[in-house]
Specification:
- The chain has about 230 residues and is α/β, with parallel strands linked by helices.
- It folds into two domains: about 5-55, no CATH class; about 85-230, Ribonuclease H-like superfamily/Ribonuclease H (Nucleotidyltransferase, domain 5, 2-Layer Sandwich), CATH 3.30.420.
- The chain is built from four helices and ten strands, in the order E-E-E-E-E-E-E-E-H-E-H-H-E-H.
- It has helices spanning about 140-155, 170-180, 185-200, 215-230, and strands spanning about 5-10, 10-20, 35, 50-55, 85-90, 100-105, 110-120, 125-135, 165-170, 205.
- The radius of gyration is 19 Å and the shape is globular.
Amino acid sequence: MMSWSRMSFKGQPVWVRMGDDQRPVLDSDGRAEMKYRQEDAKSYRPSPGNLVPLAEQGREPAPRAEPRPPRAPRAASSSPAQPRARAASITDDHVPGTIHVWTDGACSGNPGPMGIGIVLVADRERAERGEYLGVGTNNIAELTAISRGLDLAAELAPDRTRPIRIYSDSSYALGLLGKNWKAKANQELVASLREQLATFPRVKLVKVAGHAGVDNNERCDQLARQAITSRHDV
């Protein structure tokens, strides 16, 4: 019989679904099921390696911290070396009509077979894409996932005037596109993607933690790996 027990996830007390052996119940992808509060309807799928027993089993889980209000945007540089998207925090207030695009790239071996996953959420609309890219590197997959995500957003808003947020767990891709890092490899792909971003006047880049139980990020990873396994789009 399964039950919920308290554990710790990155220092935060959480509830984890447990089996009769008092171990986390794992799904087909080897991930546990976790909630921040037992009464929450929403659950997350962390790696079991990130779950540890609470040091104090008798205390109740601490309440989740409320997100901080967004910071005022910094003034733009007067002469940027390259066009770049403005970075945003995942805790920023959501503007009505915003198109949220979650992206992830995966590679089996590096180089090796590549796949990408995209989840688009806009008001009540939701779209998912998984695409097999052939053989290449993880960095190529991460950059291509962002490009395909922008293509999907443009299908929904051809005039490109709606606010768009691109969520990625790739520090490499976000550094090149949002921090003007110099591209030492994949230069043509980076240049093309920078030009593509420049056609979206209200796009922002958001860094998320990879493999940390963030629902849409985890779903993108799943779609990318399904595409690699099947060698087909999903």
